[in-house]
Amino acid sequence: MPIYIVRWPDLSASLVQAEGEEHLLDILDQVGNADDCEWSIYDGPLFIDFRLPVQWSIEEPAAIQGNPRRVVIGDIGELAGGNIIENMQLSLAEGDDGYETGAAVLRLAFPKLHAAMEDDAGDEPTGRDQSVAEAGLRRALHAELDRGLNASQTHAQLEENTDAISRLAGAMDLPVQLARKFHEMAAEHESSESHAQNIVQNRPPLGPTLFRISNHHTHICGQPPTVDGDEPAKYHGYFANRYGEQAVFIYDTDTHQASVRMGDAGWDNVHCVVDGRVEGIILNEEEAAWIRACWLATAKGFRSPS
Fold first, then answer.
1. Of 56, 80, 81, 246, whose CB count within 10 A is highest?
2. Domain locations along the chain
3. Is the pLDDT of residue 1 over 60?
4. Considering only CA atoms, which of 105, 146, 149, 112 is closest in space to residue 132?
């Protein structure tokens, strides 16, 4: 699976592993609209350190023979009461490959800054001790930010369009390519829902059960919801992945409130869905696509002009 280097409109970049550009857009959409991003496949060196911000030391043994050395944990900083993963510190590794990783990222993600570094070096090879004169550094930084500003202006022009896909992209802050994908998914979903609704309207009352599914999660995940698909003014969506993890989407057509409950996140937890995104939980690609398909098929305000 390739690794992409992604340059955001500000002075930041990301290394992201994705199956392809469509998968990449889905991943980037977790943190922001990727319409203003630039990316390319990264095949350079990769040597990055992950460090837990903990102060520790080894206490030397006392003079008494047989006393072992002892590890002493000091200040654990934001790990105390905080999220361990979010507080991990990332940096380029020491050594040549760590430095070359940074050089490759600079060249691909910040070409104006890399060019300024090359120009300052002249005929000499760039090295660890090299710095860039402040005037040239400021010009390069302005040039880097201008690239993002130009991309943002192009995105603003797209928002003035009135076609359905542009409206959807603006309403949900999606890249146009993703908006087109979800628009097509919603159209297919709506067509099948309309067909199913016609069947329901024409069938006799108290017909046989159409859909029944049991809880696949253990008791540790809490009490699963009991869903009545015939409940008025409610839309229900069901999802299960290849591992048997289940989720239920509920949309109230009177209040236009949507929520989702997921077995692996605890059935007792109800997560609000706002603008097609779930609050308080991180979804994978398949779950996010299912949520958006449900949202677009039910939230008619996103499919018609305001």
1. 246
2. 3-50+90-159, 53-87, 164-302
3. yes
4. 112
